[in-house]
């Protein structure tokens, strides 16, 4: 290891902070890794001292804040190498999607990235990854070809689909070691017919009902979602939306623009738009579809997986929350590529409730009643499953993590955890306890 940061060091606060500001890691030691050998030495040191290990790339999907233990930050390991012949990318542990998107685009290719290019590609992918082209190409984890990982014994391993550990890593995220790099498949996409439609308050119900009906007959080439967002009446809010509760429809179509235009006719007929920003765009501009925040933020979220379209009433009643519904199905519903442990492929929709703009350390107990009301309203359509990448804080407890997997797969993961990490060194995460 080239350096170790302790609690009293000047660099401690900056190194432990990530995108999620609601909670922050408070480890005893931090290793700012610059290469796989730094990771290997850090894991060996933690194992010798019986310290739990946490890993952070960008900190977007922080599941559990470390209190004590050792934190390995991987943001400096951000190399990306594309092989256009095999249509694959070698992605280091701390690389963000924006880097992968840029490198792939040079060769007429694209990764199965998500709504934000600022998210760490490795952690996103190993947690499943529901991306912009998910209904056409499946989960990001379905494109994993190989993984380089440091396991709890401090050994570096190159893991391929022939190994049980590969199956566990692709879907089990950080439970089985510290991934230093992965190889993923890329898809031949250079442009999308995509963007966003924004509707004013008076049209929320009509637009939500139209979108839910519309998704029932779409080709797999169309991936879409809708969010209902209450914008505060403050100067920082975008002028067209300031002080309004608006509907934000996001679409990404991998077919031609003419077909895309025809598919969008029912949505455009649902009401006048505050903004209509849908058209042909390069995949390098795909961040404009969701237009996610780019700066650090504090937020609390809950979600529900659904077997069919819900009644819009419970979503419309959640006036103080951002609520979102994503259309699943298509290629997400069936295994693509090499087998992995991603679960709940039978879900047809994903619905989430979000409390944004929270100060660090905010007590979320006061927020839970509003989130619980949304969950109760969606219960008649709920599958009972969860999505690993969207479990944060108290919602990332083992009983919730279990719901991210098929029951038999979860037990298999526990057995593999007992084999590869019997002391549960990697437990400051979406933890899967080892089988006893």
Report the structural category.
alpha+beta
Beta content: 15-25%
Helical stretch tally? 14
Using the CA coordinates, give the radius of gyration. Answer: 21 Å
SSE order: EHEHEEEEHHHEEHEEHEEHHEHEHEEHHH
Total strands: the figure is: 16
Termini distance? 33 Å
Mind summarizing the main beta sheet?
7 strands, antiparallel
Question: What helical percentage do the residues reach?
Answer: 10-25%
Q: What is the approximate shape?
A: globular
Mean pLDDT: 96
Low-confidence segments, ≥5 residues, pLDDT <50?
none
Strand order of the largest sheet: 13-10-12-11-15-16-14
What keywords describe this structure?
436 residues; alpha+beta; 14 helices; 24% helix; 23% strand; globular
Describe the structure in brief:
With 436 residues, this protein is α+β, with helices and mostly antiparallel strands. Helices cover 24% and strands 23% of the residues.
Describe the protein in words:
The structure is a single chain. The chain has 14 helices and 16 strands. By secondary structure, the chain is of the alpha+beta class. The strands form 3 sheets. A 7-stranded antiparallel beta sheet has the order 13-10-12-11-15-16-14. The longest helix has 14 residues, at 36-49. The model has no long low-confidence stretch (mean pLDDT 96).
Summarize the topology.
Layout: E1 5-6, H1 12-16, E2 29-32, H2 36-49, E3 53-56, E4 70-73, E5 80-83, E6 88-92, H3 97-105, H4 121-126, H5 134-137, E7 144-150, E8 156-159, H6 164-172, E9 178-185, E10 191-199, H7 204-214, E11 222-230, E12 245-253, H8 257-263, H9 265-268, E13 273-282, H10 287-290, E14 300-306, H11 313-316, E15 322-327, E16 349-355, H12 368-378, H13 398-401, H14 407-420
Parallel strand pairs: 2-4, 3-4
Antiparallel strand pairs: 1-2, 5-6, 6-9, 7-8, 7-9, 10-12, 10-13, 11-12, 11-15, 14-16, 15-16
């Amino acid at each position: 290891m080239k350096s170790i940061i302790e609690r009293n060091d000047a660099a401690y606060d900056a190194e432990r902070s990530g995108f999620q500001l609601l909670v922050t890691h408070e480890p005893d030691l931090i290793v700012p890794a610059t290469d796989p050998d730094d990771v290997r030495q850090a894991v060996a040191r933690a194992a010798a001292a019986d310290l739990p290990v946490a890993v952070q790339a960008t900190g977007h999907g922080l599941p559990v804040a470390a209190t004590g233990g050792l934190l390995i930050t991987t943001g400096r390991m951000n190399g990306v190498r594309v092989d256009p012949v095999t249509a694959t990318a070698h992605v280091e542990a701390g690389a963000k999607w924006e880097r992968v998107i840029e490198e792939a685009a040079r060769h007429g290719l694209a990764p199965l990235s998500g709504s934000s290019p600022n998210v760490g590609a490795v952690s996103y992918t190993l947690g499943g990854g529901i991306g912009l082209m998910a209904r056409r190409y499946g989960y990001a984890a379905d494109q994993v070809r190989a993984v380089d990982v440091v396991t709890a014994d401090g050994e570096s391993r190159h893991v391929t689909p022939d190994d049980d550990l590969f199956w566990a890593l692709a879907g089990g995220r950080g439970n089985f070691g510290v991934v230093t790099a992965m190889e993923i498949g890329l898809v031949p996409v250079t442009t999308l017919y995509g963007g966003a439609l924004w509707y004013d308050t008076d049209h929320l119900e009509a637009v939500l009902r139209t979108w839910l009906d519309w998704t029932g007959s779409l080709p797999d080439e169309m991936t879409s979602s809708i969010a209902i967002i209450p914008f505060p009446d403050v100067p920082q809010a975008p002028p067209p939306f300031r002080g309004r509760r608006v509907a934000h429809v996001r679409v990404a179509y991998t077919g031609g623009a003419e077909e895309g235009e025809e598919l969008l006719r029912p949505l455009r007929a649902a009401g006048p738009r505050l903004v209509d920003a849908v058209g042909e765009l390069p995949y390098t501009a795909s961040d404009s579809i969701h237009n996610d925040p780019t700066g650090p933020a504090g937020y609390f979220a809950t979600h529900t997986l659904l077997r069919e379209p819900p009644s819009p009433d419970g979503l419309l009643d959640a006036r103080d929350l951002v609520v979102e519904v994503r259309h699943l199905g298509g290629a997400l519903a069936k295994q693509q590529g090499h087998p992995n442990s991603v679960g709940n492929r039978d879900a047809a929709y994903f619905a989430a409730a979000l409390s944004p703009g929270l100060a660090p350390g905010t007590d979320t107990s006061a927020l839970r009643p509003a989130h619980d009301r949304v969950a109760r309203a969606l219960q008649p359509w709920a599958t009972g499953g969860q999505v690993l990448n969207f479990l944060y804080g108290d919602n990332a407890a083992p009983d919730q993590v279990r719901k991210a997997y098929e029951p038999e797969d979860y037990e298999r993961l526990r057995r593999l955890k007992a084999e590869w990490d019997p002391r549960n060194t990697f437990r400051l995460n979406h933890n899967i306890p080892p089988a006893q």
